[in-house]
């Protein structure tokens, strides 16, 4: 009866060990997903900042083109 008990005990600790590894893996995956979400959010914010900056630059350049076009027209008169 002793060896059977030892076998059951080993089987339970083996199941516990697998469960612990499974939980660690799940936690690791959660952390990885969290880091990925944070990275994506930072990238999105950076792109939004670039859009703002480029939109302002575009507006400024369009204004400059308008001024230069008027100036050119006056010089041609």
Automatic annotation (TrEMBL):
UniProt-listed InterPro entries: bZIP (IPR004827), bZIP_plant_GBF1 (IPR045314), bZIP_sf (IPR046347), GBF-like (IPR044827)
Major localization class: nucleus
SUPFAM superfamilies: Leucine zipper domain
Domain BZIP: 19-77
GO CC annotation terms, alphabetical: cytoplasm; nucleus
GO molecular function, one term: DNA-binding transcription factor activity
Positions with biased composition (Basic and acidic residues): 13-34
Spans annotated as Disordered: 1-51
SMART domains listed in its UniProt record: BRLZ (SM00338)
Keyword terms of this UniProt record: DNA-binding, Nucleus, Transcription, Transcription regulation
Segment forming the signal sequence: none
Subcellular location: Nucleus
Domain of life according to the entry: Eukaryota
Protein family: Belongs to the bZIP family.
Descriptive protein name: BZIP domain-containing protein
Organism: Aegilops tauschii subsp. strangulata
